[in-house]
């Protein structure tokens, strides 16, 4: 049987990918490799990039990872065994891990979350006009919180792609992932703020409180306050963050005072949406689930 040109070139192609510093590729990246090397590999002029990829997925270590998100399916390609976390960061440019996934990276939870949260920031938008009013806050928190349904299942995991507000990647750092590779994720302070704002993305308020307790030896309270101020939320989430710190019972009064003394507490606020069985903290002017802490 006469060998095809690509089968003759297979050893050279495999060598290139074996020695390549990257092990995860987008379709466009593979297309570039194909176009730059097809002459040296003496591939048939009629061979397309899709045919090239199809051959490698059937006859080499190249694997296609498909993620069927609700808004748009996405895929990346890996050469050999690659961590799911490393693979996911190539789905969208500028993405980073957040919420429960960042908690896991920072070892602030004993759980191994089965949902992975990836944040992709929106473009900068003008700040909404108008001021807060108690009636508007009350009405908003009686409604369900807005949660992303842009989710894809992969093996026994759920991948949730968040379309977060623009922050200029505030508090995004490089951390060690579970497999020892470097990941982009929110730092401890930004993570604690994010999960206070959306406890549903971190296992709920009881898990959030446990994270605040676990962060005691990692956190900079000054950086936490500065990050919260820079995020410039319309809602008074400083009352939520201060409440969690206070509820831990392990932080110094001077640390908690950064949130009780330096931020206004003008409105009654809520720890989360649609609470049915709750208590009220006069100090923080905050409704919270009964029994928390």
Could you describe the 3D structure shown?
By secondary structure, the protein is an alpha+beta fold. The protein folds into two domains: 5-79, Arc Repressor Mutant, subunit A; 84-124 and 134-289, Beta Polymerase, domain 2. It contains eleven helices and twelve strands. It has helices at residues 5-19, 27-37, 49-59, 84-88, 99-105, 134-142, 188-197, 205-214, 221-231, 237-248, 253-260; strands at residues 24-25, 62-68, 73-79, 96-97, 115-119, 151-154, 157-162, 172-176, 182-186, 269-270, 278-281, 286-289. The protein has a four-stranded mixed sheet. Strands 1-3-2 form a three-stranded antiparallel sheet. β8 and β9 form a beta hairpin. α7 packs across α10 (237-248). The longest helix has 15 residues, at 5-19. The radius of gyration is 24 Å and the shape is elongated.
Q: Any guess at the CATH architecture of the largest domain? A: 2-Layer Sandwich
Please state the structural category: alpha+beta
CATH fold annotation of the largest domain: Beta Polymerase, domain 2
Under CATH at level 1, the class of the largest domain stands as Alpha Beta
Q: How big is the Rg?
A: 24 Å
If helices are DSSP runs of H or I spanning 4 or more residues, what is the number of helices? 11
Q: Based on DSSP secondary structure assignment, what is the total number of beta strands?
A: 12
Biggest sheet details: 4 strands, mixed
Spatial strand order of the main sheet: 4-5-7-6
Order of helices and strands: HEHHEEHEHEHEEEEHHHHHEEE
Instruction: Give the domain tally.
Output: 2
Separation of the first and last Cα atoms? 73 Å
Q: Which percent band covers the strand fraction?
A: 15-25%
Shape: elongated
